[in-house]
Amino acid sequence: MIRFAADHRMGAGEGGFRLEARFESTAAVTALFGASGAGKTTAMRMIAGLIRPDRGRIEVDGQVLVDTERGVFLPPRRRRIGLVFQDALLFPHMSVRANLMFGRWFAPRDSRPVPFEPVVATLGIGSLLGRRPASLSGGERQRVAIGRALLSSPRLLLMDEPLAALDRPRKLEILPLIERLRDEFAIPIVYVSHAVEEVARLAGHVVVLDRGRIAGEGPPDRVFGLAATAGVDRFDLVSVLAGRVDAYEPAYGLTRIVHPAGTLWLPGPAGEPGRELAIVVRATDVTLAAEPPPARMSVRSVLAGTIAALHPTDQALARVEIALPGGGTLVASVTRMGLAALGLGPGDTVHALVKTVSLDERPMAGGTVPDAAPGSAGAAPG
């Protein structure tokens, strides 16, 4: 359990910044999400003890780290918090093994130590132990930095934009490792990011910060569909849908994802049947239909829901919020001409079509190809 309440001003005058935020979370991964300058890193640094708030109280698993009314401020070294930054910040003169073992110096003697071998195996860095940081790739250095933080036996792991300095292939290499850390080591994580795909995959609870205030809070599939996204550029507007792997169709190389509102098709294998996935759908990739689409068309991913709200965004475009069975929300960007042609309004049933080729399967890949179900998928989804 993390409880955070802080009011803090940095700088003076018009150029100053004020963070005034309250949240609490029991999730394995809590994400602090928002644009640059929203206050994410400031909040994280307060949890770490690197910034003392003007007023507030911060508590982790029942231990009070900060309570300004009672004059409590636990020094960073006593908080048992592991830190992972954008840059790995490894000691260049030390081997990978020595960098990893350095974390042990900060592990309290009375704590249950995180074992060395499972960390090395999970992060896939066994072959790197004798090397120096200068000889490692960016992704390898970040793996080592994560391992060093884990081996300090933290009660909480803070990760500040850990993938921001990596290219796309390296990000896709590290994401499943963080997911494994979340599931295998049971150490809660506060994850700072402005990347929807990362947050959707990892977090159970999202705190959206905007200019030092909380603009939204909750599970990813609800937070990213809130009306608070109204000011977001249409090319950045997304929905996060919680789906479940049903079966892999080897004839077409596609995975069927089931959702209470219908079926989505994802390129490639996405793990074993029953695996839960967070699927990011961009609002500009959603087409709406008043009637169920005909069978003889290439688009096979179709979700049915109820129009919850219509929001004209300018003279040409509108945003449609669709309430889906199961509690999710799907957002679509459409032209006002197209919306008028549908003749639909709030409360009406609508069918949302999503092209499979528009879904990015890479953040969700990583499982072995499951055994194929007998039979054929029929027409190839598009």
Describe the structure.
With 382 residues, the chain is α+β, with helices and mostly antiparallel strands. It contains eight helices and 20 strands. The chain has helices spanning 40-48, 96-102, 116-123, 138-150, 168-184, 196-202, 220-223, 336-342, and strands at residues 2-10, 17-25, 29-33, 55-60, 63-67, 72-73, 81-84, 156-160, 189-193, 205-210, 213-218, 238-249, 254-259, 262-267, 276-282, 286-289, 301-312, 317-323, 329-335, 349-354. Helix 2 packs parallel to helix 4 and helix 4 (138-150) runs parallel beside helix 5. The longest helix has 17 residues, at 168-184.
Find the structural class using helix and strand composition: alpha+beta
Distance, first to last CA = 43 Å
Strand content: 25-35%
Give a count of the beta strands, DSSP E runs of length 2 or more: 20
Poorly predicted spans: 367-381
Provide a brief overview of the structure.
The protein is 19% helix and 34% strand.
Per-chain topology:
Layout (H helix, E strand, L loop, with lengths): L1 E9 L6 E9 L3 E5 L6 H9 L6 E6 L2 E5 L4 E2 L7 E4 L11 H7 L13 H8 L14 H13 L5 E5 L7 H17 L4 E5 L2 H7 L2 E6 L2 E6 L1 H4 L14 E12 L4 E6 L2 E6 L8 E7 L3 E4 L11 E12 L4 E7 L5 E7 H7 L6 E6 L28
Parallel strand pairs: 3-9, 3-10, 7-8, 8-9
Antiparallel strand pairs: 1-2, 1-4, 4-5, 5-6, 10-11, 12-13, 12-15, 13-14, 14-17, 16-20, 17-18, 17-20, 18-19
Helix pairs in contact: 2-4, 4-5
Task: List descriptors.
nine-stranded antiparallel β-sheet; globular; alpha+beta; disordered C terminus; 382 residues
